[in-house]
Design a protein that fits this description.
alpha/beta; six-stranded mixed beta sheet; five-stranded antiparallel beta sheet; globular
């Protein structure tokens, strides 16, 4: 079976006034359909840089300098070659940390979702686009999709806005979902509902998901495997049970020991 995502020997470098600075070094990982891979580590460990490279959302001075990224068996990035447009939005959806990164405050929610859908499915009739938009909002757990569709982002709570962001990523029915610290700004109760929603979306759609977080407990609740990163490198990669109960690396052990206990 072809892996949904395959990253091999990925190195990402930033061009600075002091010269080239490596941000990610020799990272390899893969993901199968229906699987959730958690990427954890402290701030600056390279988590977000790694996942943003999958869809070509790196800063202008940052580039992939070696290694390769393949999605659905198609190479989308390697030195001298990029093909992000063929997979971004259509096959890979992204949920960002803050809703401000994905929601236009001056546009009604429904119109934003329809714009994303028509951007990637240009031939879809307007009536079908509206129906798909309402169905997607409803799948996010909203009791009244019509009301949510008519709302502006500021008229919704933080948890509701985050679910709308998930709807934006899901409306094209992607095979791969990237959730980049998407629960960090939410209260604990709302976090739990968003995690439950993400888990159900993965199982119901047989999609794969990369869940980026600094919270090992959240990763344990949601993920099948966990990748631990530090200083731009993968220091541990294994099943959730193995990483949480029998970690091999001292850094992983230190992260586990830092978890607050009652």
């Amino acid at each position: 079976m072809t892996a949904l995502l395959d990253i091999q020997g990925l190195t990402i470098t930033a061009a600075t006034s002091r010269g080239a600075v490596p941000l990610v070094r020799d990272v390899s990982m893969s993901l199968d359909p229906g699987e959730v891979l958690g990427i954890v580590g402290e701030s600056g460990s390279g988590k977000t840089t790694t996942v943003r490279s999958i869809v070509g959302l790196l800063d202008p001075n940052v580039s992939v300098t070696s290694g390769s990224i393949s999605v659905l068996g198609r190479t989308v990035s390697e030195p001298g070659r990029e093909d992000y447009e063929s997979i971004r939005g259509r096959h890979v959806g992204v949920i960002f940390q803050g809703t401000g990164s994905s929601l236009d405050p001056l546009m009604r929610v429904g119109k934003q979702i329809i714009e994303v859908l028509r951007r990637h499915r240009r031939q879809i009739p307007p009536a079908q686009a509206k129906q798909t938009m309402l169905e997607t909002i409803g799948a996010m757990g909203f009791a009244d999709p019509e009301r949510v569709a008519r709302s502006y982002p500021h008229e919704l709570s933080g948890g509701m806005r985050q679910r709308v962001s998930i709807a934006l990523a899901m409306v094209t029915r992607p095979e791969l979902l990237i959730a980049d610290e998407c629960t960090s700004a939410l209260d604990v109760t709302t976090q739990k509902s968003v995690i439950a929603l993400l888990s159900s979306l993965v199982s119901e759609n047989d999609m794969g998901m990369i869940f980026v977080t600094h919270d090992l407990m959240l990763a344990q609740e949601l993920c099948d495997r966990i990748c631990v990163m530090r200083r731009g490198q993968v220091v541990e990669l294994g099943t959730t049970e193995q990483v949480m109960e029998s970690p091999r690396e001292d850094y992983t052990k230190a992260l586990l020991e830092a978890i607050p206990s009652w």
